[in-house]
Amino acid sequence: xxxxxxEGIKLTEAEEDSIEGLLEEDRKGRARSSTVxxxxxxxxASSLYVDHxxxxxxxxxxxxxxxxxxxxxxYKIGPDVFDRLGINVTTxxxxxxxxxxxxxxxxxxxxxxxxxxxSDGFDVGLAFDGDTDRMLAVDEDGNFVDGDHIIAICAxxxxxxGELDPPAVCVTVMTNIGFDxxxxxxxxxxxxxxxxxxxxxxxxxSMGLVLGGEQSGHVIFRQHNSTGDGIITAxxxxxxxxxxxxPLSELTKxxxxxxxxxxxxxxEGVKHIAESASVLEAIxxxxxxxxxxxxxxxxxxxxxxxxxxxxxxxxxxxxxxIATHICQTIEAQI
Length: 334
What we know:
The chain is of the alpha/beta class.
């Protein structure tokens, strides 16, 4: 269950913990259900939402699009929006049965979508996840386009239109360093947060930013919504393709993805190990070798006894070698 405040914003972790604490308390003395609120049944909610999303496009979009709705929340409303905008859309995964959500479809498995785009000559393929807060894409050649590229495309376009005010974007620590380099060259500041859309939104609100998101395709356009919205992200991307008159493969050249090596090591006392002198020196040594063309990220998992190691570099061999050295140093502490 996801809880939102009256401002339409996800609750903070502290607020969620407080609610959980109340639920665990003795129920005696609690108010009756009839006195704590009411349910408002908005049967026109879908049409209001469609009106809002379509207003983002500022006109029809005459593109041939393959749309994967993940057998999830967008199975009906997604095609409705695309039809209304004049998009030549072909849909897949629009037959939910309560069990097949994200099953071999959606943004978590885009193999089928990529094959369809290539075989039938689509301009682009778009895939939502099950609850439609994320969207990833496939270009006209069947190449996958992740959230880093989508945010970079939107940031550059917004900057060109004078709408990226202030000229900054908020992303997480997992965003590829190629994104950082591309934004630096465009004169756009990059703000980093912990992984999680709530952290991205919180930083965006505190700094007054209009664009942010995650590599997973969770993108927040704060002028349109207070959370990630896969359909709005799709319409924003399609609108840019229309306005620029360029295929997605050309737009993605805004950034180059650097090779990324990820390793997970299971260990008890992960925070102590990750902060040990030998591990910190291995991290610093690796970062010195990489310079500004790479980075090292070592962090304890917040959910399991695992240390996550990630190294990025413009050289796959170098990233792999540095990651291996750091992992060996950590293993010596286990």
